Amino acid sequence: MKTIYSPLHAGHAGTMELMSGVIVPGFEKPSRAEIIKARVESEKLGPILAPEAHDLTAAKRIHKADYIDFLPTVYPAWEALGRSGSAIPYTWPTRGLRGDVVPDTIDAKLGYYSFDAGAPFVKGTWEAIRSSYDVVLTGAKLVKNGEPAAFALCRPPGHHAGAGFMGGYCYINNAAVAAQWFLDQGAKRVAILDIDYHHGNGTQEIFYSRADVQVLNLHGDPMVEYPYFLGHADEHGSGAGEGFNVNYPLPFGTTWESWNAALEDACAKLTAYGPDVVVVSLGVDTFEKDPISQFKLKSSDYPMIGARIAKLNLPTLFVMEGGYAVDEIGVNAVGVLTGFEDR
Ligand SMILES: NCCCNCCCCCC(O)(O)C(F)(F)F
Ligand SMILES: [Zn+2]
């Protein structure tokens, strides 16, 4: 399997985040991608390719243009105020406030274009976001051109980013960009299977009213887990999209047996949908040792996930999302891929 990777991810480094009221070094750090890349090499998964460059047209097919155009302006505006470190919002237009008038100050715009304080910017963040976007489009093109599967080693991740907002370490929704690109290239139906521990609220929001993209999500129950405000089982899609969004909220402590039962059901629904291609939002924060997550999957489970996805017999694009147990992130993420190849 080919991997697409860009060293430009590493510019998104030294971010800080709020964890239980304390500002701590961000969990979504450069070593994650480096360790996965090293494992791709040691497992001899296949060639590692640099991404081709793209303009932002494909991003604006699923994100609002003003949101995308805002992203490269963030850090320069932050620095213009004499600031350094991580650009982080601290005020949001929640219920009872106005979102139709956005003051032209970076603090207001950061709040307007985000849903949490979890998408910090540093000097190299925009370049990293762009590289992650180029990585996923390059991977999609490989699959479109006949590769049975490809691995887009994306960093930063994307599945929490909605049409007009960032959050949860996500800025451009890489998986959603790829799904739309496949449709624009002639696919009739695309399925997105999101197996990250956290609900892909952004991906759901983007395609919620559409029947040409089926979104299936296995994740920590939002009644107890981030992102809290989307991801319930009663969210089936709206309008033409009714029935094409499926959520599998699962409790803290979920082990392989019940997680795999949800995967089986999702795969059955995906097969019934009959997509031309499947995009997998590959997060491995379902791992028992993940520092911010509460599922109990073991490293030996990940190859079985890959094997099950291979049985779908569909062109497959794997898109890296989360996973924070960095010592094992390579084994777990690449385990899905070697399992897919039945190695
Ligand atoms: N700091 C407060 C607790 C953690 N809140 C943010 C969790 C973000 C999870 C991100 C992810 O793993 O879902 C992704 F795949 F997007 F990377
Ligand atoms: Zn996650």
How would you describe this protein?
- The protein is α/β, with parallel strands linked by helices.
- It is 33% helix and 14% strand.
- It has an 8-stranded parallel β-sheet, sandwiched between helices. Strands 2-3 form a two-stranded antiparallel sheet.
- α7 links the parallel β6 and β7.
- α5 runs parallel beside α6 and α9 packs parallel to α10.
- The N and C termini lie close together (11 Å).
- Bound molecules: 7-[(3-aminopropyl)amino]-1,1,1-trifluoroheptane-2,2-diol (FKS) and zinc ion (ZN).
How large a portion of the residues is in β-strands, by DSSP E? 5-15%
Physical arrangement of strands within the biggest beta sheet: 4-1-5-10-9-6-7-8
Shape: globular
- The N- to C-terminal Cα distance equals 11 Å
Low-confidence stretches: none
Order of helices and strands: EEEHEHHHHEHEHEEHEHEH
Structural class, from secondary structure content? alpha/beta
- Rg over CA atoms: 19 Å
Bound molecules: 7-[(3-aminopropyl)amino]-1,1,1-trifluoroheptane-2,2-diol, zinc ion
Report the average pLDDT across residues: 98
The number of strands is: 10
| Fraction in helix | 25-40%
Number of discrete helical segments: 10
How is the quaternary structure best described?
Answer: single chain
The biggest beta sheet, please?
8 strands, parallel
